[in-house]
Amino acid sequence: MSTPVSPSPARAPLMSLDDAVGALLAQVQPLAGLETVSTFDADQRVLGQDLVSALQVPPQDNSSMDGYALRAADVTALGTVLPVSQRIAAGHAAEPLRPGTCARIFTGAPMPAGADAVVMQEDTQTVSGNIHGVHINTLPEPGQWVRRAGEDVRRGAVVLARGQRLSPAALGLVASLGLAQLAVVARPRVALFSTGDELVMPGEVAPQDMPVGAIYNSNRFFLRALLKRMGCEVSDLGIVPDRREATVAALKSAADHHDLILTSGGVSVGEEDHIKPAVQQLGSLNLWQIAMKPGKPFAYGTVNRAAGAPVGQPCHFIGLPGNPVSSFVTFALLVRPFLLRLQGALPDASAALPQPVLLPAHFSITQADKRREFLRVRRNAQGGLDLFPNQSSGVLTSVAWGDGLVDKPAGHTIAQGDLVPYFSFAELIA
Ligand code: AMP
Ligand code: MG
User: Fold this and answer.
1) pLDDT in tens, 36-67
2) Which ligand is nearest to the CA of 242?
3) 217 CB less than 6 Å from ligand 1?
4) Cα–Cα distance between 273 and 299 in angstroms, integer?
5) More exposed terminus of the chain, fewer Cβ within 10 Å: N or C?
6) What is the rounded average pLDDT of the residues 8-30?
7) Prediction pTM value
8) Which atom of ligand 1 is the closest one to the Cα of 326?
């Protein structure tokens, strides 16, 4: 008979990722502050108010071709000759079209009153001799090659809605309405620090002089870059040693002037993990064990502000796991939607993740895992996905090599050729 094994101490049940995202987003009130920025500088900012167009774009009917503006009804047969009564270049006003004539016209030039179509110059032939006219070698339809006034933007239309993250194309659209400045949501102010006595900053100690047990701080570099991509103003507070008082002091000084304190490491439950007691001392903290791989430990809390600090929301606290891949993936799946919501850009929690694309796996995973897994993969030239061979949560190469994540549900295996949901980093960390 086998020896009975004493049961391990009761553990809190794991939380699903969707529940964790929902619980996290429920804590966020979008930032109320707006600021006015130049349209030039508004890429990736979140629009603070609806943009209603005061004008129509294009402002007048205009030609979409180099050619001749005319009345379609004046061309009764192929080869009809029409005298050229005026020349209209882009940026110049047109005279009304004299009946029975055409106007030389260029792309973007306003249509003359009375004309209803443009014939492209390839469909015409200059009349030889001294008549200033052209043969029209096509039977034009009314409206052809004419861009209608207001076909892009109608006057009074909501062109872009509050909460929209601005893209380069959106900036061009805003400029087409004549707006040189925009009201955008204030940038979230984020204090970032790393915990861990083993951490050394690149540049401070040369590789050959690294003491045993020391490693370079890599999380600081990608977290800072990810925060900036999300439109945050980052205060990088460096490395906090693994001591309770040092952790408390760092949190306390950051809370007053930031919307979020983001840390990495120290959220497991080992005795060197000082984040939990420090945040609890200054506010409140929930340690979540999320049923995902990589990235199980994750902390959310709030840190109280000193009396006299600007009122409003509490300072949010998010503690990411220390393992670099876990830190990266939990940022993409949890912190990104949190920051979008903070900027009023994620009204609906169901959009916390981008839409996955189904792609064929060019690999197999025969062992199912109890947790939902996010595998580092890369698209290949055949339109399938290759898997990075080492999926350990410490192997940052997998993320730098990969271009996205495959979402593998708990208890699932993957066979060669299976269609699997794929999230590209281009969308996940943008
Ligand atoms: P922790 O969550 O603090 O127990 O850390 C888990 C693992 O991640 C350990 O192997 C740490 O050395 C490593 N780690 C923690 N923080 C960082 C960091 N900023 N850069 C690189 N590795 C880290
Ligand atoms: Mg640590």
Assistant:
1) 999 999 999 999 999 999 999 999 999 999 99
2) 2
3) yes
4) 12
5) N
6) 85
7) 0.90
8) 8
